[in-house]
Write a structure and sequence with these properties.
The chain is mainly α. It has a domain at 43-75. 32% of the residues lie in helices and 2% in strands. It has a two-stranded antiparallel sheet. Helix 2 (46-55) packs across helix 3. It is extended. Residues 168-182 have low confidence and may be disordered.
């Protein structure tokens, strides 16, 4: 048994559910537009104050600050203008008008296309005159190559006046004739003394 008496069977436990006086139909069917109670808040116009300070002869930052505090200027914010009414404007590309169904079934469009192509083929071909390429300053500058001075093969200074001796194991001075046409006299004149003995083949 409990120490206190419980309520009767008609009692409902929990928080009471208070119904709203405005039902769903009234909420959806009547929209309340918001209206601002205050206008746009003014803001400080620094451009106008700095202009007046310059006209007053202020040159330093401290003078500008004192001038702005003494002559405070405000400006109202510019509200956005309402947009244009675009209800009657249609965006996008215009649709292609519907063709004749009979022409579509009878393949009339293909026959019209073939007839147009035959007319184009019967026309004389268009002659196009090609324009020859013309050099520009840039192309002329890139194509220019400075003249190269003829360079001799590298030789040490102490061997500059010494002729080459590469000739079938020997080295005659004359290179104006081919090696097969050099006779014995020219061969002997190219050498002297011990060089001739070393150049002559051993019998």
């Amino acid at each position: 048994m409990s120490t206190y008496s419980l309520p009767g069977q008609d009692f409902v436990y929990g928080a009471p559910n208070i119904p709203d006086s405005e039902n769903c139909k009234q909420v959806v069917g009547s929209w309340q537009d918001h209206t601002s109670s205050r206008g746009p808040k003014p803001v400080v116009d620094f451009v106008l104050m700095n202009k007046e300070a310059s006209q007053a002869g202020c040159v330093s930052a401290h003078e500008f600050s004192l001038q702005r505090k003494a002559h405070l200027k405000f400006k109202t914010r510019q509200t956005r203008s309402p947009g244009k009414n675009m209800d009657d404007k249609i965006f996008g590309r215009a649709s292609v008008p519907d063709g004749n169904f009979h022409e579509l079934i009878s393949n009339q469009y293909q026959r019209n296309f073939i007839a147009q192509q035959r007319i184009k083929e019967a026309e004389p071909p268009i002659t196009r005159h090609l324009i020859a390429p013309v050099h520009t300053r840039a192309s002329i500058g890139h194509s220019y190559k400075p003249p190269q001075e003829p360079s001799s093969p590298f030789k040490l200074k102490k061997f500059e006046n010494i002729p080459s001796r590469a000739f079938l194991g020997s080295s005659p001075k004359s290179v104006s004739k081919s090696p097969q046409r050099v006779n014995d006299e020219e061969y002997k004149q190219a050498f002297s003394g011990k060089e001739l003995e070393r150049a002559l083949p051993v019998s």
